[in-house]
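Sorry to interrupt, but I need a hand with the structure work. Go ahead and set the record down below:
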Amino acid sequence: MAVPFSCAYTEKVYGNFKWIDIKDPQKEDLDGIAKMYGLDYYQVKDSLEAGHLPKYEKGDDYNFLILRAYTHAFHYKSNSITDITNKVAFFYNPQMVITIHRADFDFLTNVKPQQFAQSELLIIYLIHKILRTYDKPSLVLSERNEHLERTIFLRTRAKVSLEELYFQKAHTRIIKKLLLITQNVMHQVEMPKPVKVPMQDVRDTVLNLVLNFEEEWENANNLLNSYLNLDAQKTNGVMKLLTVFSAFFLPLTFIAGIYGMNFDFMPELKTRYGYFAVLGLMAVICVVIFIWFKRKRIF
């Protein structure tokens, strides 16, 4: 079939409807796509916008849906929605399904040769596949949080950086917010009565993912706070040690400073046992300070 635009294009027929998949169209193709299939130009433009969030719009002739799938390899320094996800736009009605996307998706190219009785079942199938892309990140984040927790609290030789904890938290937060938006969109999507049960299964899947990432976000947040608290505790321990040493040496330094002054008339300087008396006084002061610290349970 000849098309008025230059991009990857496939068409499949499923009984009562056909599925048209358009991959990586260019800006100059927008008008051709809109005119050929009777789509709104600005909705087609939204389908190519890199950072567009999930949305649903119900029209007179078709429904418009945008979802985002997790596509990138897990990377802790990813802190934006475009780093870790890519979107798929759906235009659909009972007679036709159109998908527009830039990235490669296995669930779009490797659809099993099964017959979908109606277009909405294909939409639900693809939504399920998109949601399933978040399963692995959920597992990886959970394992990573457990590893960081063991490292922090068991104080192993492995080092945990503040930067690593920050990106762990940011990565989880982005996915959680994205899934919350997706959950809201799924509640807006209207489906005919015969497919309401599969659609409810989709909503349940989104809910489970939201709860999983909510838990992982709380874990990551707690780990970051624990790390900061332990780091502050270490700093306080160092300051405490320095304070203890200062408490011992300050009075001793004071005494040494007095007897180090260059005055001619200092009786103690000519006393036979003055040196030993001062050393004894210093020892007594150290013992008194030690006993006081012990009673106050400072160490």
Notes: The first strand starts at residue 8 and ends at 14. Residues 8-232 form a domain with the Beta Polymerase; domain 2 fold (CATH 3.30.460.20). The chain has a mean pLDDT of 85.
